[in-house]
Amino acid sequence: MTIFQFPKDFMWGTATAAYQIEGAYQEGGRGLSIWDTFAHTPGKVFDGHNGNIACDSYHRYEEDILLMKELGIQTYRFSVAWSRIIPDGDGEVNQEGIDFYHRLVDCLLDAGIVPFCTLYHWDLPQTLQDDGGWENRRTIDAFVKYAEVMFREFSGKIKFWLTFNEPWCIAFLSNLEGKHAPGNQDLQIALNVGHHLLVAHGHSVKLFRDMQLEGQIGIAPNVAWAVPYSKSPEDRAACDRNIEVYADWFLDPIYKCSYPDSLYEWFLQAGAQPPVQDGDMEIIAQPIDLLGINYYHPSVNRYHPEAGYLQSEEVDMGLFKTDIGWPIDATGLYDVLHYLQKYGNVDIYITENGACVNDGPVDGMVNDTLRTQYLQQHIAQVHRAINDGIQLKGYMAWSLMDNFEWAEGYKMRFGLIHVDFRTLERTPKESYYWYQNVVRNNWMETR
Ligand SMILES: N=NNCCOCCOc1ccc(-c2cn(C[C@@H]3NC[C@@H](O)[C@H]3O)nn2)cc1
User: Which residues form the active site (predicted)?
Assistant: First the structure.
C-alpha cells in the first residue's frame, strides 16, 4: 500500500458552473444568456435538454452546501451568471442577482468553505450576443463593468477569482467547431473571440490591481496533452498544434505578451489572424496570481490533411474510456503540468478534473467505481507533480453533482453526487465517500 501525503495547506474542492446547475432561468431578474438561446434551439443539445431547471441550485444551494460541508472540502469553485448581475449585459445592475450570490457566498463562508469564483463560464448575456457578442470589442468594456460590479460587491468575501473558464471552448469549440453557444463555424470569428476575451481578461486583472483588492486572480484554460502516433515530424507538429491551441494560444499572450509564432503562422496560412490593436498585448499580459488548469484526457494524434483546422487527427489507441468516450491516462496530467512550467513555476490549481460515469442508483447506492479509480489515478499524478516541485495548490473535482453537460445535456454525468432530474433528489455516490476520505485525511492510499 502507498500513502500519498499532501501539503498541509493544499486545498481540496469541487467545481460547478452557473448555467449547468442553477436553473431558475427566468427568476430573480435574470436576463437570457446565449446558452438559453442555444439550448432552446432544436438540434443543438441532446434530446432538447436545457438549463431551465438544471439542478435547481438557485433554490437548493443550502442543501448543496450542506453536502459540501459533509464532504469536508476547503473550497468550492462556482461561476456567476453575468445575466443575473447585469441582465442586458451592460445596463442596470440587478440587485436580486447580487443578493442571490451574497446568500450563496455567505452560506459557503458560514460552512467554512472558501469561495473560488469564475466570472465567465460561457453564459454571455444574449443582448450582447445580439450586438456581435465577443466579436464586438464593446463586449470587452461590458465585461470589465460586470467584473467591477463583482469586485466591489464581493471583494471582502471572495479572495480567489478566475476571469474566464476554458478560453479554447469559448473561442474554438463555440465559434469554429460550432458545438457550443453561439455555434459559429468560422476561424476568423474564433480568433476575434479569443483575442477579445483575452483583452477583457487583461483589463479585469488591471482593474483588480488598481482597486487594490485582497486576493488572487487568474484564468482557467482547459489543456490538452497529445502524443504523436509516429516519430514522423508531421505527426509531432500535429501534436504540437493540438497542445498549443488549448494552452499556448492563450497563455503565451498572458505570460509572453505575444501569440505563439507557429500557430499564428498556421492560422495566417488559413487566412485568419487575431485582430490585435495597439496596446492590446500589453494589457493582456498583466501579471496573474494563479492558473486554473482543467484536464480530462490525453490523445494520440497524427497529421491528416483533412483532420479539421489543425490537420491533427486523434487516433483511438484502445485505451479504456469513460462514458463520454474520453480515454483514461492520468500520466497526461503529469506531462502537461510539466509542459506548463515553461511559463514559470506558477501557482496552479486543478480547477477541473473528473470522469463521466453514467451509473445510476441501485438500492439507493451509486457504485461509480470507475470514477473513484479515475480520481485516484489523477490525484496520484498531482502528488507526483508536487513531489517534482510543481506549485500545485489545490484540486477541485468536476463536478460536485451531475449537471447540464452542455451539448450532451443531462445524459453525461460527472458528479460525485447523483441527481435525479425528475425529482432533483441528490444521492452521494461511492466516489463522494472515497473523496471525503481523501479530503479529511489530506492523504490518499492506494493498494
Ligand atoms: N477537441 N475536440 N474537437 C473534436 C470535436 O469535438 C466536439 C466536442 O468537443 C469537446 C471538447 C471538449 C469538451 C469539454 C467538456 N468539458 C467538461 C466541461 N468543462 C467545463 C465544465 O463546464 C464541464 O462541463 N471539458 N471539455 C466538450 C466537447
Answer: 166 (proton donor), 352 (nucleophile)
